[in-house]
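Example 9 (inverse folding). The structure is encoded as follows.
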């Protein structure tokens, strides 16, 4: 009985080393992999088209976005100095009230 087990083990090792693939696995698994690969390639083509459209749109819109960001920075600058001047004016009024 040990000889039979050893023989089966040797055959299994030989099959794994030689990468023998049964026909059922070849049909269902590898066929599925090929189908997934084809679908992925189709999606990559669609994504490339979308990316090129997005890049052209972004080039058109980018000056407006830069202008908006500049306006936000100017607004923050004005708000900051308004707060500083208001604080200084409040401090001056407080000092006048105390004296």
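The amino acid assigned to each position is listed next.
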């Amino acid at each position: 009985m040990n000889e039979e087990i050893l023989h089966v083990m040797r055959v299994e090792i030989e099959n794994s080393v030689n990468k023998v693939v049964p026909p059922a696995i070849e049909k269902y698994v590898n066929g599925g992999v090929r189908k997934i690969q084809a679908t992925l390639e189709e999606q990559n083509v669609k994504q490339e088209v979308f990316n090129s459209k997005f890049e052209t749109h972004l080039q058109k819109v980018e000056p407006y976005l830069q202008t908006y960001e500049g306006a936000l920075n100017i607004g923050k600058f004005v708000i900051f100095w308004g707060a500083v001047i208001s604080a200084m004016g409040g401090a001056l009024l407080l000092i006048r009230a105390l004296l």
